[in-house]
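User: Potassium-transporting ATPase potassium-binding subunit. Structure?
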Amino acid sequence: MVFNVASFITQVAVLLLLLVLVHKPLGFYLARVFEGTKSTRVERLFYRLAGVDRNTEQSWSIYLRSVLVFSAVSILVVFLLQRLQGVLPGSNSLPGVDPWTAMNTAISFATNTNWQVYTPETTMGIFVQMCLLAVQNFLSAAVGIVVVVALIRGIARTRTDRLGNFWVDLARTSFRVLLPMAALAAIVMLIGGVEQNFWSTDVTNQAAGITQTIPGGPVASQEAIKILGTNGGGYFNANSAHPFENPNVFTSLFQVFLILLIPSALPYAYGRMVGDQRQGYTVVGVMGTLWLASTVLMGWAFAGAEGTATAAAGGLGEGFEQRFGAAQSSIFATATTLTSTGAINVAHDSIPPMAGGITMLNMMLGEVAPGGTGSGLYGLLILAIVSVFIAGLMVGRTPEFLGKKIGPREMKLTAMYILVTPVIVLASAGVTVLLPDAVANAPASGPHQFSEVLYAFTSAANNNGSAFAGITTSGPYLSSVIGVAMLLGRFLPMVLVLALAGSLAKQPKIPASSGTVPTHGWLFGSLLLSVTVIMTALSYFPALSLGPLAEGLLK
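Assistant: Predicted structure:
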């Protein structure tokens, strides 16, 4: 397969243009949603049914408790109903899901990871797909957004311990943002040829004399929120490489646009909510620079592999969909690993070794370019606080971030946030490769075997969900350990983010002075960009050297 440079440049340019055009209007709308005081009829009904007082705001600890309780109940409900699938309507005559798979899937979808240890079309019926997994795609995406909204309030507010109301923020995000946008996206996908029905289709191959039953289902509606909410779990095992989920280049490019849409617009909402739009422009500038650099590097890695033997054979052939082309596959792979999406339109186990390393590096950056819905922005804001601390040390002043002192408590919370994910990834992968029975689930040999294990835990802890698909993770050990990695990788950072938000909200606002380090503009943006890359290099470079870098040098 030839890497078409002209197609690559054209698609990247179109994406940039579309994202620039919607950045301000969507960001403005998001800010209005979270700054408004009025509620719609549907929201008021939800509050009455849930027993929520929409006028009562919560402290950071109560906000966090609401996040954790809501997510725990979500996991329990999804687990139990999967186990009961055989007696539920819309089961497609499929039995209940086995406990290890049900447990892993429940955690996966509630944490916005969407790691799939099963073949969806032969394991999950329409009821589970539509009423459990698709619903969690909405709710887990909404949880990520409301956490960053709480952090922004903590930065913007002074002398208070209130960060808003989790249940109000959840309702507004679901009813005003995700539902209408997903409905519009589903219509576009239907027009583009994505399937939406409730029955299977019999296809007869007259030359071979056989009839094959192709499973159907409400694919377009699930595909829309899977992509828009940076979730990534596919209705079919082939995910966005399946023609029913992603039939052509238009739908594939549209999916990349949806992946980047909300995360890239949130910085504008951030700037508006803190009262300084320059802050939002600096953040989105860093996000955009990282995305463009990674996309170009991925294109280089794909183009440089033409005519070589990759993980299997055939250069850019095995594992690729001919209808997309290598250029679109490289753009999709970048977007899906720079966010917490995890959807794929090319088998990541088959892409060139250096490209595989870039997909891992994208996740190791913390998925901040632009990252998942909400999680990308709060991850970059944490790195901005680290950058302010470093700048403060350089000029000999107490670090300040938008009028708030960054003292010992704030830096301890920030440092723990930075360390949490690398510790989970490296410790889990290190233990696994020492267990012969566990590492045998990755059937490759040499550096690629280590890459498969490292990728799995990088994906799980960063709540991405994509995989080097050669590894089998449906057994008790890997299902459990990956499940724990997903839980810790999702909720420990949220604990620290909300604790930081509460600490900042209690502070008075300090007027800017001549010694205040500005947190906007190209100079601070360059510092933030450098900190983001260096933090990743220091944490993960040795592990990358043992896996994709070593494999790439051997080719």
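Residues 5-35 form the longest helix (31 residues). The mean pLDDT is 91.
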